[in-house]
Amino acid sequence: MIDTRPLSELDPELAALIEKDVTRQRSKIQLIASENFVSVAMMQASGSVLSNKYSEGYPGRRYYEGCQVVDEVENLARERAKSLFGAEHANVQAHSGSQANMGAYFGVLDPGDTILGMRLDQGGHLTHGSPVSFSGQLFNFVAYGVDPETEMIDMDEVRRLAHEHRPKMIIAGYSAYSRIIDWAQFRAIADEVDAIFLVDAAHIIGLIAGRAHPNPVPHADIVTATTHKALRGPRGGLVLCREEFAKPIDKGVFPFAQGGSINNQIAAKALAFELCARPDFEEYAHQIVRNAAVLADTMADEGMRIVSQKTENHMFLSDMRSIDEELTGKEAGILLDQMGITLNRNSIPFDPRSPFVTSGIRIGTPSVTTAGMRQEQMVTLGTLIVQILRQRNDEVAMKELGTRVHELADEFPGYPEDFPGHV
Ligand SMILES: Cc1ncc(COP(=O)(O)O)c(C=O)c1O
């Protein structure tokens, strides 16, 4: 029979490393826009025995026997996703956001086809045409960007490029963009050039689930997403689409992009969709947006330039040069992490520095909102971030600021000191 000892007994070295990261997650303020804290129930579903089952194919059409239960689990996840987002079809097998995109592109396009997406250095994702990703190597990507003045998507440029290049697909949805996207306008442009309209909602899907951001599903042909960001589910991908694309999308995911489904993750996705449908999630999603707005406004009041002036979702970019011409996103990110605030460096529009150095940082509020922080704490946090950057060469001031960061982190940990499911 299988060994039933807990991880701490079976592999203390690995258990200690997990424990070490629990401490890191609890002791620092987590502001990475694509991260969150999962619940104990999510860990249980994700770590369940469903991991044992091989089930290539889809419910009712498997290449293995014994799939009766995982069929039910996958159908539950699909039905919950469809109902949550009002979609005609859901594929819950994509292992990640990148594979959701891969499955979607190859499901409905041919290699070499033209896709119009956002510039990577202005908010687009690697899978939107980066030369180091399958996307840039196998498709012909054309890129639109933001208006240099407003730093918001230049819809005139989107329309002009769409008419000039006649793409087979237009993508909206980004990794680093803080404003609400006008789905209807994108849909209209896609219709003008007869393109498929795909929304990559990886970042905002949680806000959409909580009704804190307009839903692209009524406008888009295909919506791809991740389940591990504001949605607060397991690490994984999701594709929603119109019925007419259901078969090609399913084929694009399996067998084209990946093999056997990860049933434990599909179970955890089913749980995430259920939790998102409950009223407290709606309140959570709105609080994420309120927190981000207050944090950005506080930092702006302290003299930090916020890209496109404000945020309407869960994240924003800020320009380090507004604190000091010499300050880079890399230096700011490392310094803030040392001080107990974890976030990431990020290119800002028209950034003269490389993506490894950058002039900006990206800040997001899903994790701190899960930890219970509200507007009051956002004011404290915004002030602390700007003061740390301004006073980074003043040892005495930094010591005092570090203490204040740790007091705030200790008051709002993502997990209690000893939670069930702990290794
Ligand atoms: C817009 C967008 N699409 C796709 C992805 C890819 O997701 P994953 O890291 O799960 O492959 C991300 C990840 O952050 C993203 O921001």
Overview in brief:
The protein is of the alpha/beta class and 423 residues long. The protein contains 16 helices and 15 strands. Strand 11 and strand 12 (315-319) form a beta hairpin.
Q: SSE layout and pairings?
A:
Blueprint: H1 7-10, H2 12-27, E1 29-30, H3 40-46, E2 57-58, E3 61-62, H4 68-85, E4 89-91, H5 97-108, E5 114-118, H6 134-138, E6 140-144, H7 155-165, E7 169-172, H8 183-192, E8 196-200, H9 205-209, E9 222-226, E10 237-241, H10 246-257, H11 263-276, H12 279-301, E11 305-306, E12 315-319, H13 329-338, E13 341-342, E14 344-346, E15 360-364, H14 366-370, H15 375-390, H16 395-411
Parallel strand pairs: 1-13, 5-6, 5-7, 7-8, 8-9
Antiparallel strand pairs: 2-3, 4-10, 9-10, 11-12, 12-15, 14-15
Helix pairs in contact: 3-11, 4-11, 5-10, 7-8, 12-15, 15-16
Pyridoxal-5'-phosphate (PLP) binds at residues 34, 96-98, 101, 125, 127, 173-175, 200, 202-203, 226.
Describe the structure.
The protein is α/β, with parallel strands linked by helices and 423 residues long. The protein has 2 domains: 233 residues, Type I PLP-dependent aspartate aminotransferase-like (Major domain) (Aspartate Aminotransferase, domain 2, 3-Layer(aba) Sandwich), CATH 3.40.640; 129 residues, Aspartate Aminotransferase, domain 1, CATH 3.90.1150. The protein contains 16 helices and 15 strands. A 7-stranded mixed β-sheet has the order 4-10-9-8-7-5-6, with helices on both faces. A 4-stranded antiparallel β-sheet has the order 11-12-15-14, covered by helices on one side. Strand 2 and strand 3 form a beta hairpin. It is globular, with a radius of gyration of 22 Å. The structure holds pyridoxal-5'-phosphate (PLP). The site of pyridoxal-5'-phosphate (PLP) has 14 residues, from helix 5.
